Amino acid sequence: MLMDSENLRELINIVSKRSKHKSKILLQIPEGLKCNVIEIIDNLKRLGHDVVLSAEPCYGACDIRDYEAKKMGCDLILHLGHRKFYKKFKTIVPVIYFPIKLSVKYNPVELKKISYKKIGLISTVHHVETLKDISRDLKNIGKSSVIGGEILGCYTKNASKIEKNVDCFLFVGSGEFHASGLVTEKPVYIFDLEKNKVRLINKMKRLKILHANLAKLDDAKKIGILISTKKGQFFDLNRIEKLKNKLKKMNKKAYVLVMDNITNEKLTGLKIDYFINTACPRIVEDGFDKPVINARDLFGSI
Ligand code: SF4
After folding, report:
1. Rounded to the nearest whole angstrom, what is the distance from the C-alpha of residue 249 to the centroid of ligand 1?
2. CATH code reported for the domain at 108-202
3. What is the pTM of this model?
């Protein structure tokens, strides 16, 4: 992902309008944009702002680093690459969100690989504008489409609302992270704009992990409840208690573990048989040594 000069100009305009005084800004930026970051910082400094770069990985707007901002004396957070998160949370430092829109040239001939007639179009904030062009190109080859709009790896309502009107989905973007989060019986294609290829994704990987881990729950006695401190991922204390009670009724011993990023290394060495994840639902696919299952896959919404 590269921030072009138009995006950069727009960013500078927004910051100038929203922050008339000279701010100290904590800059949060997705990994893919890091090659642009020095240019962005230099531009912000030219406006008279002081800038601190958050060097932590930033996967989504669920992860606003306001405590770090406060600690570093920042009075503003500039969060690049994502729109405001769909779940509401308060921050102790104001945030400007700047979702970057990218325009990419693609090969429309690739769309012929889709073997269905009615296609549901979804994307991320970066490429959602491209969906209109894709819709036109599908029409040119005799297919129809319904534009669903943006999805996240954890939030796919825009796909669910059009599901009954389409034969399959086409996710336009890069990588499988977002598309493989869709829970649907319908086939899901991805138009990978980095590779300029359309392919059908294999939804079985996710289901295999889920079924394998569900089957292991009966034998597990000690269960770790994984909590992330990230603002949009935090599972509130009432829900943690509800989860503990459910496990108690199942004769399981529950242990609450809190951390920022949830990784396999942090769980290694703990004498716990099984983990229930309450944070980003996509981490369960990250390859853990012990079974990790999403709380919502086990108990529905708590
Ligand atoms: S919770 Fe996970 S999928 Fe959702 S925005 Fe955050 S990192 Fe992305």
Report:
1. 30
2. 3.40.50.11840
3. 0.91
